[in-house]
Design goal:
Layout (H helix, E strand, L loop, with lengths): L4 H11 L6 E2 L8 E2 L4 H9 L2 H5 L7 E3 L2 E5 L4 E4 L9 E3 L23 E2 L2 E2 L5 H7 L1 H4 L7 E3 L4 E5 L4 E5 L8 E2 L2 H5 L17 H4 L26 E2 L5 E4 L4 E4 L8 E2 L2 H4 L8 E2 L8 E7 L2 E6 H9 L3 H4 L7 E2 L4 E5 L4 E5 L8 E3 L3 H8 L17 E7 L3 E2 L5 E9 L11 E6 L5 E5 L8 E6 L10 E8 L8 E8 L4
Parallel strand pairs: 25-31
Antiparallel strand pairs: 1-2, 3-4, 4-5, 5-6, 7-8, 9-10, 10-11, 11-12, 13-14, 14-15, 15-16, 17-19, 18-19, 20-21, 21-22, 22-23, 24-26, 26-29, 27-28, 27-30, 30-31
Length: 483
C-alpha cells in the first residue's frame, strides 16, 4: 500500500474500526430543434442567429398574451399590440432564477463600463453592444469566476455571458437561459459548459434514484449538482456530489453508477498478491487470477450494505493515507474515505468526485501545464481555513488553491509549506500534499493542547520552488474553547 500498508493496517486496527422533429447534438441523444418562426427570423439573424442565440428548441407558443419561442439561450417574444421598437423583445428569464446580488457588496471599478452599479466585464462588452441594452436587459450580478464550470460569467435579466478559461481572449458566449427555463417543456440538453447548474432545482428532479433501490440509502451520493440530461452516449445522466448516475432513457429503473474514478483519470496501480487477511482487518478482492487489492473490512462491509460490487466496481488501488485523519481507497465507480476524526456515524463516506467529472465532460479539466516561472507575477495563491476559532484539543484544516493569473487555470503538482509562529517563539512547519488537477490541496493541523485559550496563532503558507518573488499568504486563527 504505497509502502505503508502494514503501518496503516495497524493504525486502523488501533482505532478500533467497526461498521457501527430535428435531431442535433450528441450521438443518440434526442435533441429536438425547430425552425425559427418567421415573426422572429429577421431579428434572430440580425442578433447573430444560431451562433449567438442558439437553435430554436420549442414551437411558438403564447405567454402572457405574447407570442414567444425558446432558443437555447433566450426566449424571444412579440407583443402583437405594440407598434414601436419594443414590439420584439427577449423575455427576462433570469428574474425567476433568484441570482440577483446587491452591487454595493462588490462595488464597480472606477473608469469601467458601469450600468446601475454593475461593472460589465471587459470581454463581454463587444457582445453586450452587439445585442444592445434593450435585448440584454439590466445586469443582475458583477462578473464572477465560476471554478466548478471553469468559466467567467455574468448574469443579466434577458441573457447571461460567459467565457471558458480555455477560450481565447474575447471568445464570449451566452449561457443557456432558454434550455434551463424550458427544461420541462423542451427536449433539448445544452452543453455542460453553457449550462446553469442549480442544485436547489436539481433536488426536485431526480428520476434516476428509483433505479438505485439496491443501494438502500441514496443519500451517500450527496446532493445533485445538475438536472438530469442526455449524455454523449445517449444515456440519461445526473451528477451528484460524490457519484454519477446514468440509465437508458427508456429504462430508468436500470440506473447504475458511472466509472467516475476512471473517467476523471484517478491513478490506478497494478493488482498484487494477497499478504493480509481478515485477521489483519482486511478483505482481499481478487481481480486478475490470484492478484488483487486489500480492502479494509469496514469498507467491505459498507460496500455490501450499499448494493455490493455491482455499484462500487472493483478497487483500482490499495488504501492510502489521504490526509492527517483520512484514509481513502478508490473503486471504479467511487472512492471511499474513512475519517478518524468524524463521529462514528460519519466516519465512512464517498469522496466528492462529482465536480471533477463535470469539469472533465466540459473539456476543462485536462492537465494544466505549470508556468515556466513560479512567482507572484504569474501565480495566485488562495488560502482558506476551516474556522477562525479552534479549541486547543481540536484540529484546524487549511486548504489552498493555486491558479494562473493569465488564464485563471488551476495549477497542479505544486507543493507548499505551512509555518506557524508558536507562543514560545518556535516555528511549527508542515508540508501540503501536491495540488491536484483542480489546483487544490488540504492540510490538517493536529491539536495543540498546550496552547492557552485566547492565543492568536499567526501562520503563513508559501509555495515551494518559487523564484525571487515568493508566493505567500499570511493569516491567523485563535485558540478558543468550543461553545
Amino acid at each position: 500500500m504505497r509502502g505503508k500498508l502494514k503501518g496503516i493496517i495497524v493504525y486502523i486496527l488501533l482505532l478500533g474500526l467497526s461498521l457501527t422533429a430535428c435531431n442535433s447534438g450528441s450521438a443518440n441523444a434526442s435533441q429536438t430543434t425547430y425552425q425559427i418562426s418567421p415573426t422572429f427570423r429577421e431579428l434572430y439573424e440580425k442578433l447573430g442567429g444560431n451562433d449567438v442565440l442558439g437553435a430554436a428548441i420549442s414551437k411558438p407558443f403564447t405567454l402572457d398574451s405574447f407570442e414567444c419561442q425558446y432558443t437555447v439561450n433566450v426566449l424571444i417574444c412579440v407583443n402583437p399590440q405594440a407598434t414601436d421598437s419594443n414590439r420584439l423583445f427577449f423575455y427576462p428569464l433570469a428574474n425567476s432564477m433568484n441570482i440577483r446580488e446587491d452591487p454595493s457588496q462588490s462595488p464597480a471599478q472606477p473608469g469601467s463600463n458601469v450600468v446601475d452599479g454593475y461593472t460589465i466585464y471587459d470581454e463581454f462588452i463587444s457582445l453586450y453592444n452587439q445585442l444592445g441594452a434593450q435585448f440584454t436587459g439590466k445586469p443582475l450580478t458583477q462578473a464572477h469566476i465560476n471554478y466548478s464550470q471553469q468559466r467567467i460569467e455574468q448574469y443579466f435579466e434577458n441573457v447571461g455571458f460567459y467565457r471558458k478559461f480555455s477560450d481565447t481572449a474575447g471568445s464570449v458566449h451566452l449561457l443557456a437561459y432558454g434550455a434551463y427555463s424550458c427544461l420541462d417543456k423542451c427536449n433539448y440538453t445544452p452543453s455542460v459548459e453553457a449550462s446553469i447548474l442549480n442544485s436547489a432545482r436539481a433536488s426536485l428532479d431526480q428520476p434516476l434514484l428509483a433505479g438505485l433501490s439496491e443501494i438502500a440509502d441514496t443519500s451517500i451520493l450527496g446532493e445533485p449538482l445538475t438536472q438530469p440530461y442526455i449524455a454523449s452516449d445517449g444515456m440519461e445522466e445526473q451528477v451528484y456530489t460524490n457519484a454519477v448516475v446514468y440509465a437508458p432513457v427508456n429504462d430508468l429503473n436500470s440506473a447504475r453508477l458511472r466509472p467516475v474514478s476512471t473517467l476523471i483519470n484517478i491513478p490506478r496501480t497494478e493488482p498484487g498478491t494477497q499478504k493480509y487477511s481478515s485477521r489483519d482487518g482486511m478483505v482481499f478482492y481478487a481481480i486478475k487470477g490470484n492478484k488483487g487489492y486489500h480492502v479494509p473490512l469496514v469498507f467491505d462491509q459498507f460496500i455490501a450494505a450499499h448494493g455490493g460490487k455491482n455499484f462500487s466496481g472493483n478497487p483500482i488501488d490499495e488504501v492510502f493515507q489521504y490526509s492527517a485523519t483520512v484514509f481513502r481507497q478508490c473503486f471504479e465507480n467511487y472512492c471511499l474515505d474513512y475519517d478518524s476524526a468524524a463521529s462514528d456515524s460519519n466516519k465512512i463516506s464517498l469522496a466528492p468526485l462529482g465536480m471533477q467529472y463535470i469539469q472533465q465532460i466540459s473539456g476543462s479539466s485536462s492537465p494544466t501545464v505549470q508556468p515556466a516561472n513560479l512567482s507572484s507575477d504569474n501565480l495566485i495563491l488562495n488560502v482558506a481555513k476551516m474556522s477562525q476559532k479552534i479549541p486547543a484539543d481540536g484540529q484546524q484544516q487549511i486548504q489552498i488553491l493555486v491558479i494562473q493569473k493569465e488564464n485563471q487555470q488551476p495549477v497542479p503538482n505544486l507543493e507548499a509549506t505551512l509555518t506557524i509562529k508558536m507562543p514560545d517563539g518556535s516555528l511549527y512547519t508542515a508540508q501540503f500534499p501536491a495540488t491536484g488537477v483542480d489546483g487544490r490541496s488540504t492540510l490538517v493541523i493536529p491539536p495543540m493542547k498546550d496552547i492557552p485559550n485566547g492565543t492568536i496563532l499567526e501562520f503563513s503558507v508559501c509555495i515551494n520552488g518559487t523564484d525571487n518573488t515568493p508566493v505567500c499568504v499570511t493569516d491567523g486563527y485563535i485558540i478558543w474553547p468550543s461553545q
